[in-house]
C-alpha cells in the first residue's frame, strides 16, 4: 500500500497517488448497512455496488470525519451531497486498516495550494526576499505577517504544527463557525509563532 509522510510539504500532488480499495461493512444514509467495496482515489471516495459506482463522494471541506472508534475500527463521516448532509460509517477489519484509511481520508481533505503573485490577505507582492508561506488550512500563499500562526491541524492528518493564516485562525477559534463555506468540526490549539 502507498505510504505518505503525513507532514510532507506537498499538498494534493502527493495525495493524488492514493489508490486504496477495500471491502468494508458500511452504513450510509441512502444505501443503509451493506458490505461492499470502497475505493479512495484522487481525493474521491467511491462506493461500489455489484461492481458499479453507487456513490462518488468528493473529499473536500464538506467531507468531515466526525468521530472514530479505535476499539471497533469505525470511522464516522458526514458529507454534503445534493445540499443535504449524509452520513457514512466505515468499519475496518484491523487496526492497521483503520489507521491507514483514517489518515488517507484526512490527508485527502487538505486544500490545494493556491499561489498568486501577492499575499492573499494584504496583497503585498512576493519577491526574492519576501518568501511566501502557505496556510495549511486554506491553502493560500501569504506573507510572513499574514501567515504568522502555527496550529495542530489534526483534521488534515498532520502530526506536527503547521502554518496557519490570520483569517483561518479567527475561524478555527470560534466554535460552530463556518470555515471556507463549509463545516468545520476540528478546532486545533492555536499558537503564535513569535512565542517560540
Ligand atoms: Zn500579507
Ligand atoms: Zn488560511
Automatic annotation (TrEMBL):
Gene Ontology MF terms: zinc ion binding
Keyword ATP-binding in annotation: no
Listed transmembrane segments: none
Domain of life per record: Eukaryota
FYVE-type domain span: 113-173
Alphabetical UniProt keywords: Metal-binding, Zinc, Zinc-finger
CDD domains (UniProt xref): FYVE_like_SF (cd00065)
Protein name from the UniProt record: FYVE-type domain-containing protein
Naturally occurring in which organism (per UniProt): Stentor coeruleus
Organism lineage: Eukaryota, Sar, Alveolata, Ciliophora, Postciliodesmatophora
Amino acid at each position: 500500500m502507498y505510504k505518505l509522510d503525513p507532514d510532507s510539504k506537498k499538498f494534493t500532488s502527493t495525495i493524488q497517488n492514493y489508490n486504496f480499495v477495500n471491502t468494508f461493512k458500511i452504513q450510509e444514509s441512502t444505501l443503509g448497512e451493506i458490505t461492499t467495496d470502497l475505493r479512495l482515489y484522487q481525493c474521491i471516495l467511491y462506493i461500489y455496488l455489484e461492481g458499479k459506482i453507487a456513490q462518488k463522494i468528493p473529499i473536500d471541506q464538506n467531507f468531515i470525519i466526525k468521530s472514530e472508534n479505535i476499539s471497533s475500527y469505525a470511522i464516522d463521516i458526514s458529507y454534503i451531497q445534493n445540499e443535504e448532509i449524509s452520513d457514512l460509517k466505515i468499519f475496518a477489519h484491523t487496526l492497521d486498516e483503520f489507521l491507514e484509511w483514517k489518515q488517507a481520508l484526512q490527508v485527502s481533505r487538505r486544500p490545494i495550494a493556491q499561489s498568486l503573485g501577492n499575499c492573499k490577505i494584504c496583497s503585498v507582492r512576493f519577491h526574492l526576499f519576501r518568501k511566501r508561506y502557505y496556510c495549511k488550512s486554506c491553502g493560500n500563499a501569504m506573507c510572513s505577517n499574514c501567515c504568522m500562526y502555527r496550529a495542530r491541524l489534526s483534521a488534515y492528518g498532520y502530526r506536527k504544527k503547521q502554518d496557519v493564516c490570520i483569517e483561518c485562525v479567527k475561524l478555527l477559534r470560534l466554535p460552530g463557525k463556518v470555515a471556507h463555506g463549509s463545516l468545520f468540526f476540528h478546532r486545533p490549539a492555536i499558537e503564535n509563532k513569535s512565542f517560540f
